UniProtKB/TrEMBL annotation, chain B:
SUPFAM superfamilies: Periplasmic binding protein-like II (SSF53850)
The species this protein was found in: Haloactinospora alba
UniProt name for this protein: Carbohydrate ABC transporter substrate-binding protein (CUT1 family)
Record-linked Pfam families: SBP_bac_1
InterPro entries for the chain: Bact_solute-bd_prot1, SBP
Length: 281, 430
């Protein structure tokens, strides 16, 4: 039964992946024939300050994005799952960013943040007319914010679905036992959301290894190398400097780290056993 | 030590893989698989002139039509390389001469046109035609307008600050102070796009040390990036940034969206160093400003510098090369097209109507006949009288070095590295 799916996966994922691994041991500029160069690309990538900086930036961006997205998504998810008024209207608003393309979002923010013709200049708010994308210290923060703006709605949706599946009887018995809203949240909602949390975190962490289009349009890795994370480093090395060998090295590293991260998270959380979080259910 | 047998097998396997994937998604009417000659051209810029010229050819030669596809600049640059590498190039390969053309000729991907396109080259200004010659033959011919870098200024803003257009670097420094006092950005600069920053280091290096300085870099001479002329140019840039010449948010200004020209025509900036291709855009966005207040001049001289004040930098033109993968018949069609259509009377006129100047000798009368001849006349004179026309460095250098240059230049402008560090880092790329 799984044969057709495996075949497609092999043809379109594993075969090209093997190609990239092979390319990482050759020297090729996109023209002519790849030349076998052994571990030369790996040595060069390991010693290249730009690529090293990209590794560090990727870690930084992953951590910062996670710290920004996870709590906000959790709280919004719990809030939109509750039965308060205006929830429906707000929920619609929250999910709008899910429908936009990354490139369009990046272009819009680029325009809004323009210090001379953007939001700050239009509304005469000096606090907004900073050199958002041109200052190496601010650019990464802006990128984290815009990524969060794009992806928080999706994770909110996950948490909302998770919260709605928690049986009301659990909350009723907690109330009878005299638990307040905060105690209900920490003793019922959070534990019941464990698997949602694992799923959402895996998507967030592995996803942050693949952020590309948004940053490419927003800053193209600049100013200087301030937002040149690994996927951008791979692209710019391959398709601007035409150093396909070194770009393939970065590609292989990204695949390895992504796989390790996803497997590690699964193993750590015990989500692969997928036992129910409810006694007797 | 040659590659091991296993190594060769692996290489062959990966190459086969790459080629199959490349050709697998390469059914775009590439040269090798289609009937008849093809061309890929760029949208924007002189697109209309290209369209008119291909239409004329196709009407006159219904049995030898050239099939044209249109691409945006960045998309084209990424696609063409893979296509050329996979033997899937269009018959007419659009390029920028320089480092990429050198790569093509080295890999024998384009044909030598020596003696076959005299109908075209005899009219072209020599400083422009020279860019298509590499080593031992003629591999590219110019195909559109010439694009020198011009110092534009807002007459009204400069007059309000009581300054004249700068003729020396010292004048420029004084003008910066006066304009700052008026609360405007002295010089607009699209730092986010980075390539406009190249124009500064190119002109300053040329004015200080002449074109020989960059030639040494091209030749790969050791320590050529730390040459005193480059160092002086980089220091002048650091000083200008320090003095606030480009304002305090040039890193957020984007050239592709025209933010730098908008600063100039809205009176928020006094000067702008940009390619002559921005003129048609400004004429469209701000016709009144272009009519009354737009001034243009050559780049200031530097006291004690050895470069000729007539020297210019920019893109002499864009170029056509003919793909070596195309059949004899397709190559002949392409060569006939070059001789018949490029810079013929109709093509020259459609370029002039776009507000741009083809690099063809003896155009003075045609230019004078245009409605808006002043800017045309100025840019044409610049190119005609230039002792040396330096191709933009990012085009002239091999792609990997060009990327290093852009990234380090950006850091120099941001103040992240000193001129000495800039020179030392770039020396390692030679």
């Amino acid at each position: 039964m799984a044969a057709p799916a495996l075949l497609v996966f092999g043809l379109f994922a594993l075969v090209p992946l093997a190609g990239v691994v092979l390319l990482s041991f050759t020297s090729w500029d996109g023209l002519g024939t790849p030349r076998w160069s052994g571990a030369d690309n790996w040595m060069r990538a390991a010693g290249d300050p730009v690529t090293r900086n990209a590794v560090w930036l990727t870690v930084k961006l992953t951590v910062l994005s996670y710290l920004f997205q996870a709590p906000v998504s959790l709280l919004l998810g719990v809030y939109t799952a509750s039965r308060s008024r205006h929830r429906e209207a707000l929920a619609v608003l929250y999910f709008l960013p899910l429908l936009f393309s990354s490139a369009a979002v990046a272009l819009t923010f680029k325009g809004l943040l323009d210090p001379n013709f953007g939001l700050g200049a239009a509304l005469n708010v000096p606090a907004l007319t900073r050199d958002w994308l041109g200052d190496a210290d601010l650019a990464l923060g802006v990128v984290v914010f815009v990524i969060g703006w794009c992806f928080i709605p999706f994770h909110t949706l996950l948490y909302q679905a998770g919260v709605r599946q928690i049986p009301a009887s659990l909350y009723e018995s907690a109330r009878i036992d005299g638990a307040g809203p905060l105690a209900q949240f920490t003793h019922i909602t959070l534990p019941q959301l464990k698997y949602t949390f694992v799923t959402s975190s895996t998507l967030m962490l592995v996803g942050s290894l693949t952020y590309f289009d948004l940053i490419f349009v927003l800053t193209a890795g600049g100013p200087g190398d301030a937002t040149r994370i690994l996927p951008l480093d791979m692209y710019l090395t391959g398709f601007r400097s035409y150093d396909m060998g070194k770009a393939s090295v970065v590609g292989v590293v990204l695949v390895a780290v992504g796989l390790a991260l996803a497997l590690g998270l699964n193993r750590m959380s015990g989500a692969n056993r997928m036992e129910s979080r409810q006694e007797g259910a | 030590m040659g590659p091991s047998r296993a190594g060769r097998t692996l290489t062959a396997a990966s190459l086969a893989l790459v080629v199959t994937t490349a050709t697998g998604c390469g059914g775009f009417g590439g040269g090798s698989s289609s009937d008849g000659a093809t061309a890929w051209a760029l949208t924007g810029g002189s697109e209309e002139a290209f369209r008119a010229s291909f239409n004329s050819w196709n009407e006159a030669n219904p049995d030898r039509e050239i099939n044209v596809e249109w691409f945006a600049n960045d998309a084209y640059k990424e696609k063409i390389r893979t296509a050329v590498g996979a033997g899937n190039a269009p018959t007419l390969v659009f390029n920028w001469s320089g480092g990429t053309l050198a790569d093509y000729t080295e890999a024998d991907q384009v044909v030598d046109l020596s003696g076959q396109v005299d109908g075209l080259t005899e009219n072209v200004l020599p400083s422009v035609a020279a860019n298509g010659e590499t080593g031992d033959g003629l591999y590219a011919v110019p195909n559109n307008q010439t694009q020198p870098i011009v110092l534009y200024y807002n007459k009204k803003v400069l007059a309000d600050a009581g300054v004249e257009p700068p003729e020396t670097l010292d004048d420029m420094t004084d003008a910066v102070e006066a304009l700052k006092g008026e609360g405007v950005v002295p010089i607009a600069l699209a730092g986010q796009s980075v390539w406009p920053e190249l124009m500064w280091i190119q002109y300053l290096t040329d004015r200080i040390g002449g074109p020989e300085t960059f030639q040494r870099i091209l030749d790969g001479e050791e320590g050529a990036w730390s040459d005193p002329a480059v160092m002086e140019a980089a220091t002048a840039i650091a000083d200008l940034v320090e003095a606030g010449a480009f304002g305090d948010s040039f890193g957020s200004v984007d050239a592709d969206s025209g933010a730098d020209t908008a600063l100039l025509h809205t009176g928020k900036a006094g000067m702008l160093l940009q390619g002559s291709w921005v003129y048609p855009n400004m004429a469209e966005d701000a016709p009144e400003f272009v009519g009354d207040d737009l001034g243009h001049t050559t780049f200031p001289v530097v006291d004690g510098g050895s470069g000729s004040p007539s020297n210019i930098v920019g893109n002499p033109a864009n170029f056509w090369s003919v793909s070596a993968d195309a059949s004899e018949e397709e190559q002949q069609t392409a060569i006939d097209y070059l001789n018949d259509q490029v810079y013929n009377e109709e093509n020259v006129q459609s370029l002039l109507d776009l507000g741009s100047v083809p690099p063809v000798s003896g155009l003075e009368d045609e230019i004078a006949a245009q409605d808006d001849s002043e800017h045309l006349d100025f840019t044409y004179g610049m190119v005609r009288d230039a002792e040396h026309f330096q191709l933009s460095w990012d085009q002239a250098l091999p792609p990997d070095q060009a990327q290093e240059l852009l990234s380090n230049l950006s850091r120099l402008f941001l103040g992240e590295i000193t001129p000495e560090e800039f020179g030392a880092t770039m020396d390692q790329t030679l």
